[in-house]
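Shipment paperwork, digital attachment
Item: protein structure file
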Amino acid sequence: MNIGVLLLTYGSPATLADVPQYLANVRGGRPIPAEELHELEAEFTRRYDLIGGSPLIARTREQAAAVQDELTRQYPDGPIIRVGIGMRFSEPTITQAVAAMAEAGVDRIIGIIMSPQYSPIIMSGYNRALDAAVAALGSDAPAVTMVGAWYDEPLFQEALAERVRQGLDRFPPEIRGRVPVLFSAHSMPKRVTDQEPEYIEQLQETARAIAARVGLPESQWMFCYQSAGHEPGEWLKPDFKDIMPELAKAGHREVMMSPVQFLADHLEILYDIDHGAREEAEREGITFARIESLNSSPLFIRALAAIATGELAKTEGRRIAETAAGD
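Attachment content:
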């Protein structure tokens, strides 16, 4: 059997000229006043220009290649496994990725959304894109299984804990034990998360698990949100920009941010954290740092390989059980 593993993520514009089309893809046809649209495109073009473009697609390709190598190393005599990437809002699209897998002779695809926490509502676009890709291929389409939440994968948690330890080690030993650590996740409209509180619990549980692995006392870490969007209405709190003044009032002069949801360098890290959060901290007289992104951390690559093989074992077990029941 030929197995395909698809790493699925948001995507990014390939060049500054692609920003308007990329934002249109993200909006999914939702109308927006012309003046507001022009301002939005100009602002995001400025942000991408400032960080030199998003490396997300390149980083995801690197992760896929590393997972391919890891699976080949672990299972040299096992099924042929191909690892690829699919973007939700840019190329290579999920449809293109599934078609390429089918052309390569893949029989079964395991989709892994590159977000450890899973929400059937928030992540539904990935499922719809996979369903559409399979429908377009008809009877020639591979069978597809989507992995759910994997924030509790021990290797993932240890990979993130390793990054936190490394980040704290960059501080002088005499202050290392009192540097506040802000575990952050992407903010969302409250109206969305009110429909699915389990998703927020997964984010918070990730932060608790990492803090426990690192050995951080409760007084040294907080969970917060970042990257609130432009939609009207209430967004999740606390935002990191609200926390910086509180830290300064409490006498802190250092802070370190650690995203628990983002798995590779992209706009929300290189701009929202490295520019936005840093500016907020330095405005309050606080020295700012963040952990190194997971990117192709060996521990993280092993985590993705474990998730893929674990899902394959489950789906094959179900297939065998269904075949036996049919007999």
